[in-house]
Amino acid sequence: MDAFSALLAGFQVALTPLNLTVAFAGVALGTAIGALPGIGPINAVALLLPLCFALKLPPETALILLAGLYYGSGYGGRISSILLNIPGDPGLVMTTLDGYPLAKAGRGAAALAISGIGSFVGGTSAVILMTFLAVPLARLALSFGPADYVALMVLSFALLGTMGEGKAVKTWIAVALGLLLAMVGIDGGSGVERFTFGSLELLGGIDFTSLTIGLFAVAEILVLAEGMLSGVISRTGDGVRLTLKEVMFCVPAMLRATGIGFFLGVLPGTGASVASAMAYTAEKRVSDKGSFGKGDMRGLAAPETADNAAQTGSMVPMLALGIPGSGTTAVMLGAFLMYSITPGPLLFTQRPEVAWGLIASMYIGNLMLLVLNLPLVGLFARLLLIPAWILYPGILALSYAGVYAVSNSAFELIITTAIGILAYALRKVGIPLIPVLLAFVLARLLEDNFRRALSLSDGGYEILFSTPTSIILWALALLAIAWPLVGQLQRSRAPAPSEI
After folding, report:
1. Is the Cβ–Cβ distance between 322 and 283 less than 8 Å?
2. What does residue 193 show for φ and ψ, rounded to 5 degrees?
3. What are phi and psi of 185, to 5 degrees?
4. Under the phi-then-psi rule, with left for phi > 0, alpha for psi from -120 to 50, and beta for the rest, what region is 292?
5. Which tens digit of pLDDT belongs to each residue from 193-208?
6. What is the pLDDT of residue 21?
7. What is the SS3 assignment for the chain?
8. d(C-alpha 218, C-alpha 252), whole Å
């Protein structure tokens, strides 16, 4: 079945009344949640994941809802970034540079409109690329053996360290912690208990829902409670409305940003924050005549487009290889596993209704997002006025209700709280949380393939370097590990400003 035929079959799944309803609910609810300061896409998806499972939604329906939440909350974060100068997540920092000056100049509505159009262009272009690249990538992955997968996992972890923005050591600590948490429970190969400390409740390991809610929802609430963010929004509609000429003026910037965002989104661990930063920097070098940072539409359109393209691009390795490209897709990968579906090369042949239904729904969801947000952005902006003393306890209660609905265990609430406190402490010392989650999700795949490889070689480690693919992947991993060290060495040898 070619990509066109498969996509048409996917639209038959996505266009059912139930799936259209959940797609609309996902983008609307995602926009509303994302508009709340500090509640980014990963928190939105983590919050709704237990609800999907508790409602016993079919897997394709649940994933369509979570995907809608993903890009809906991504757009919602623009509202607080542009009107309040408070980025909802790290990927939106660049949005504030030109978005907030536009809002202060009375052009908040125009800024939100170009943001929505840029998000639509980036998201839809990336879905088109994903439609034609996901299956070839999956076919390539079918030729992978256990040793290749081990090398691929190591490369994924190495890329996380590269993108740690000068925090390579802390990123590796986070990866080690994620692997350690994944080891809790009974070893599937030998039946030996690992890190259970005699607790019967830990024999089954740490539940994915408890981990995600603890890492992101609970920890985020603790951090937000320190600042108690709520605010006064800039007005959206006093200035000149967005014109067609301004939109056309931003088209080249959007196209450049789409390429940058999609490419970086496909790489595991890079995320939208790197994509939006690189797109803004590139656009500034190409187009800046002194207007960037003062309310230039291109300075807003470029990071917005790249952010959405990266979000969609990060789903390509998740669907084709079973490797999440970002923290949010790691949560979605957990949703696949909760439904006993393994993302990867066989997903497109064994569960085509899930894979292609999800891809088709993203075409529809991006269109819904544009139509919904252009006229209703003022309504979503009103959510910024909810007092923090109502908002944060409500989110926390919803989080714990979701954990209990999935597990029906009070012990999981304790685990969730403990993980939340641990995550809060990790954030305080600068250790990123997304590598913890990615390592936790990939640990089982790494361990299973490591065991298979050693079984094939009767315990010989040379099998890990026995194929051209594995050698290339190991070489790339070493390069990724060495890259930050080279940068640090160059910086240490550079003359101090006083010496110049």
Report:
1. no
2. -75, 140
3. 120, -165
4. beta
5. 888 888 888 888 888 8
6. 92
7. CCHHHHHHHHHHHHCCHHHHHHHHHHHHHHHHHHHCCCCCHHHHHHHHHHHHHHCCCCHHHHHHHHHHHHHHHHHHHHHHHHHHCCCCCHHHHHHHHHHHHHHHCCCHHHHHHHHHHHHHHHHHHHHHHHHHHHHHHHHHHHCCCHHHHHHHHHHHHHHHHHCCCCCHHHHHHHHHHHHHHHHCEECCCCCCEECCCCCHHHCCCCCHHHHHHHHHHHHHHHHHHHHCCCCCCCCCCCCCCCCHHHHHHHHHHHHHHHHHHHHHHHCCCCHHHHHHHHHHHHHHHHHCCCCCCCCCHHHHHHHHHHHHHHHHHCHHHHHHHCCCCCHHHHHHHHHHHHCCCCCCCCHHHHCHHHHHHHHHHHHHHHHHHHHHHHHHHHHHHHHHHCCHHHHHHHHHHHHHHHHHHHHCCHHHHHHHHHHHHHHHHHHHCCCCCHHHHHHHHHHHHHHHHHHHHHHHCCCCHHHHHCCHHHHHHHHHHHHHHHHHHHHHHHHHHCCCHHHC
8. 41
Joined tokens for residue 397:
């209660």
Please give the Cα distance from 43 to 438 (Å, whole number).
15
Q: Tens digits of per-residue pLDDT, 2-35?
A: 778 888 888 999 899 999 999 998 888 888 877 7
What residues are paired with 186 via a beta bridge?
A: 193
